[in-house]
Amino acid sequence: MEPILNVLWIMAIRRRIALSLLVIACLASLFASFTDAAVRYPTTIISGTTTGYVDTLIFPPGLTIPNLPGGGTITMHNGTCILAPNGVAGSARRNSTDAIDSLLLAGKSTSFLTFASNDLAAYQRNTNFWGASLDITCVGVWNSTPDLYQTNNNNRRACVLISSNVVLFAAHYPCLVGSTNRWLTTNNVVVSRTITATNAAPIAGTDLGIGLLNSPIPTNLITPALVLGDSWTNQFPSLAVGQPVMGFNQSYQAFVFTVRNLLANGRSMFTAPTTALEQPFGGLVASGDSSKPVLMFVNGKPVILCTWHFVNAGDAVTGHTTALNDAIAALGGASTSNIDLSSFISFQP
User: Fold this and answer.
1) pTM score, whole prediction
2) Coil, helix or strand for 302?
3) Using an 8 Å Cβ cutoff, are 99 and 303 in contact?
4) 92: nearest Cα among 226, 201, 185
5) Region of 33 on the Ramachandran plot (φ > 0 left; ψ -120 to 50 alpha; else beta)
């Protein structure tokens, strides 16, 4: 009887060992799949009452995955996934975040122009501007429409070029038909065009207004701002929440803002920057700053998100591009162009 019991005991031990090895193998496979998934797929998460997306698959609470590809650590807290805010390597989020954060050096200015007057010869780009290496030529520097909120009529409600012959502005603070708009090349050459027509009503119930120029502007002089295409959330599954962007004001300054939501009830919303690196370059938006744009940069190219309507928001170009291009076509203008996101990780499962 004793030999039989010994055999049964040995067999039980072997089964336990085999089961343990199987469990270890499954955990190892699970861990590997989470680590791999962190750079490829999104998942819906719920944190309190907020639902959103993150650049990773969800995994059991309490598990920490360090040394993610691209840096950072993911830790689960009650089922909520926290990801390194700059995004993973190869992502559009990392690219557009680095485009701004890499330029924020101590001693740099938030003023992108230096000049003594609005004379043509006086326009000069500030070489000490923190974003001097970025192409912001799409941002107009002057419009002949008098300012409503300025007693000195400094004509700063300039438009944004969004195609070779179309400008964008806030419909409640428009650049008028017959007005002249000026842009400045990277080499400080002034380019002027006259607005010959505008849309009769704001686009799709938004505050987006457009104007048609009397002739196209060569793209080797002024680069039109691009737009995010319809499938942009494949590359920005977290909807760009928390990443830095560049917002302009009427005083020829460009500040860093943080995305709160790129498409909330048709609006793009922003907050003051939250990181120690970005905070010194933050600023305020005030009355008279309407029609000034908010831009992100992807592969160094300007992408327009909105023009200011409120002190922290504007009606989103993203989500209204079809209606925008319909209005442009009605004026006989050139349509907008999408930023190419094909080189970045697609988080679409």
Assistant:
1) 0.77
2) strand
3) no
4) 226
5) alpha
The backbone region for 116, taken as left when phi is positive above 0, alpha when psi lies in -120 to 50, beta otherwise, is: alpha
The residue type at 313: A
C-alpha angle 284/287/293, rounded to 5°?
65
Q: What is the CA radius of gyration of the chain?
A: 26
Q: For 97-134, how does the pLDDT look when each residue is reduced to its tens digit (9 = 90+)?
A: 999 999 999 999 999 998 756 666 678 999 999 999 99
Regarding predicted confidence, which is higher, 145 or 38?
Answer: 145
* Rounded Cα gap, residues 197 and 309, in angstroms: 22
In the chain, what are the domain boundaries? 2-82, 93-331
Taking alpha carbons only, the member of 299, 307, 310 closest to residue 93 is 299
CATH of domain 93-331: 2.40.10.10
DSSP symbol at 113 = B
Name residue 101's amino acid: D
pLDDT digits 0-9 by tens, 185-206: 999 999 999 999 999 788 888 9
